[in-house]
Amino acid sequence: MIGKLNHVGVATPSIEESVKMYRDLLGATSVTDKFAMPEQGVWVCFVNLPNSQIELIEPYGETSPIHGFLAKNPKGGQHHVCFEVENIHEARDALVAKGATVLGEPRIGAHGTLIIFVHPKDVGGMLVELMETPKEGHH
Ligand SMILES: CC[C@@H](C(=O)O)C(=O)SCCNC(=O)CCNC(=O)[C@H](O)C(C)(C)COP(=O)(O)OP(=O)(O)OC[C@H]1O[C@@H](n2cnc3c(N)ncnc32)[C@H](O)[C@@H]1OP(=O)(O)O
Ligand SMILES: [Co+2]
After folding, report:
1. For the segment 37-55, what is each residue's pLDDT rounded down to a tens digit?
2. What is the count of structural domains for the chain?
3. Coiled-coil ranges per the record (predicted)?
4. 137 domain-assigned
5. What is the rounded distance in angstroms from the CA atom of residue 95 to the CA atom of residue 100?
C-alpha cells in the first residue's frame, strides 16, 4: 500500500524559530513561506530537501490537533511521517478492515490531495499520515 515517503511532520511552537535553525544550523537552502490551514488547525511551512520535505507545523486556533503533543513536548519534535498512496479511500478501507483506527474522514492536505491519519497506537507509536500521490505537474 505505502509508496514514497512524502514528508516528515515536525511540530514546533514557532515556525520562525525552526526555520532559522534549519537555515543557520543545518544549512537548508529552500524554505517556503508560512501559510495557514485553518481546517487542519495548523500553520505550515516546508523545508525542501533533495528527496523529501520537512513539514513544520505550528498550532492554529484553540482546537489545533497538535496542542496535546506540544504540551508533552514544549520544544516541539518529530510529529508524523507521511507516505504516499495511490487511492486514499482504498487505503482507508484496507486499514479499517485490518482493525486500525483511522482518524477522521479523508480531507484535503497541504499538497492539495486527500489525506488521512492512522492512530500511533496501531503503528508502533508513530503517527502516520497517508496522502494521495499528487498528479503530474501538481505539487
Ligand atoms: C499540514 C496539513 C497536513 C498535511 O497535509 O500534511 C498535516 O500534516 S496536519 C498535522 C496535524 N494534524 C493531525 O495530527 C491530525 C491527526 N491527529 C490527531 O487526531 C491527534 O493529534 C491524535 C493523534 C489523535 C493525538 O491526539 P492527542 O489529543 O494529542 O493525544 P491523546 O491524548 O489522544 O494521545 C493518545 C496517545 O498517543 C500519543 N500521541 C499523540 N500524538 C502523537 C504523535 N504525534 N506521535 C506519537 N504519539 C502520539 C500520546 O502521547 C498518547 O500516548 P499515551 O499517553 O501513551 O496513551
Ligand atoms: Co503532514
Report:
1. 999 999 999 999 999 999 9
2. 1
3. none
4. no
5. 5
